[in-house]
Structure formats: structure tokens, C-alpha cells
Specification:
By secondary structure, the chain is of the alpha/beta class. The chain is built from ten helices and ten strands. The chain folds into two domains: about 5-25 and about 90-220, Rossmann fold (3-Layer(aba) Sandwich); about 25-85, DNA polymerase, domain 1 (Orthogonal Bundle), CATH 1.10.150.
Length: about 220
């Protein structure tokens, strides 16, 4: 049994999606690869894509293409991704269990992601998250994106909560920054591209190996 101190039970939870609730990395990397190559560039380094995920699409695209091609590239990604997005998709261990535990405790939840909003909602429905989420907000749903506090505060409003007592659960330094900008602690899991040490160094309030471990750390 862990001797680590318990984490306080949150009043509300904002979830990141990719790398936290699901592993959709294979389809995402393949979509970036096809778009980037179609625009006349060499095939990108998959690990470089992987470690860039969590921020806006333009941030990852900008590692491989010129600014003049950005709009075309992002449109092409959004057009292609729906046709391949379920290839290799994995619901990460503990995701549904922890979501259901928060729901049973009457804690409101929402998804906050830089994934395209409509795509995020389709994935949430496919994976069985939707019945427990009061909102699922992604890229293009608002004028903001992670890590802007305006987006975080907007999602909190959508789930009928405030920053006081709430937390974010994510897998990247971007999630930690997103939470911090709005005054929330970020509980992280090393199920994406970053180690627990990297996540703690970025300011995470918790960094574990899985959502099962996080479930056990919360003071229910």
C-alpha cells in the first residue's frame, strides 16, 4: 500500500484527452505524416511528433512545414483524420474506472482538449465517456486553446463549476501549464510522451504511472 499522502478530493475535474484518457497516437502520427509528405516535405520523425502533442495542431505542424502552408495543412489533417481515427485507438487503463468514481461521488467532469472539438466528441461517445461528461470542448469550439486560462474558465462554466477546488488531469507539460494558468493543480500520468520526472519538473501536483494509481491516491 502506498505511503504517499492522499490528494484532496476535487470539486470538479477537467480531463485532457490524448495520452490521458486514450492512446490515439498511431492514428495522429500517421495523419501528420500523410499531410506533411503530401505538401512536399520529408517524412517526419514520429517521436518528434509524439513529444509535441498536447499543444495546438499548428504547433506540431510548424515543426515540419512553412507558415504559408499552415492553413492548408490543418484543413487537410481535419479532412483526413476522421477516416483513420479509430485505427489502433486504446482506452487507457483506469480511465473509465476513475471517470465513474468521480461521477459516483457527484463530482462534475468535462473534457478540455486541443483535439478538434467535433472529433473529440465523436471519440468521447465511441469510448463511453460522454454519459459522464457535462462538456467536451476542443479546438475551434472557442477562440481560445490550451494553455489559455480563458478556455479553462469557459469549460469550468460549462460544467457548472469554478476553479476553487477543481483540478485538471493530463499527461503533458502543456496540461500542467493549462491548469496553472487558471489556478488549478494538475494531476498527471506518464501515459503519454513524458516521464514522471519531467511532469513534476513542469510543476505537476502529482505524477504517476497510471490512472489506477491516481484513483488510489485520492482521498475519497
Amino acid at each position: 500500500m502506498s505511503t504517499e499522502p492522499k490528494l484532496p478530493r476535487p470539486s470538479a475535474v477537467l480531463w485532457d484527452m490524448d495520452g490521458t484518457l486514450i492512446d490515439q497516437t498511431a492514428a495522429i502520427i500517421e495523419c501528420y505524416r500523410q499531410v506533411i509528405v503530401s505538401l512536399g516535405h520529408p517524412s517526419p520523425d514520429p517521436d518528434r511528433i509524439r513529444r509535441s502533442l498536447g499543444g495546438p495542431m499548428a504547433s506540431t505542424m510548424g515543426l515540419f512545414i512553412e507558415e504559408a502552408q499552415m492553413d492548408e495543412a490543418c484543413r487537410a489533417f481535419r479532412a483526413l483524420f476522421p477516416s483513420i481515427m479509430f485505427e489502433g485507438l486504446i482506452i487507457l487503463p483506469g480511465a473509465l474506472e476513475l471517470i465513474q468514481a468521480f461521477d459516483a461521488a457527484g463530482i462534475p467532469q468535462g473534457i478540455l482538449t486541443n483535439k478538434h472539438g467535433e472529433t473529440a466528441r465523436i471519440v468521447s461517445e465511441h469510448c463511453g465517456f460522454s454519459p459522464y461528461m457535462k462538456a467536451c470542448i476542443g479546438n475551434t469550439d472557442t477562440e481560445w486553446h490550451k494553455p489559455q486560462a480563458e478556455l479553462t474558465n469557459y469549460v469550468l462554466e460549462q460544467i457548472g463549476s469554478s476553479a476553487a477546488g477543481a483540478c485538471m488531469i493530463g499527461d503533458s507539460p502543456t496540461d500542467v501549464e493549462t491548469a496553472g494558468n487558471a489556478g488549478l493543480p494538475c494531476y498527471t500520468v506518464a501515459t503519454g510522451a513524458h516521464t514522471p520526472e519531467e511532469l513534476l519538473d513542469s510543476g505537476a501536483a502529482h505524477a504517476g504511472q497510471s490512472l489506477h494509481a491516481l484513483l488510489d491516491r485520492i482521498d475519497w
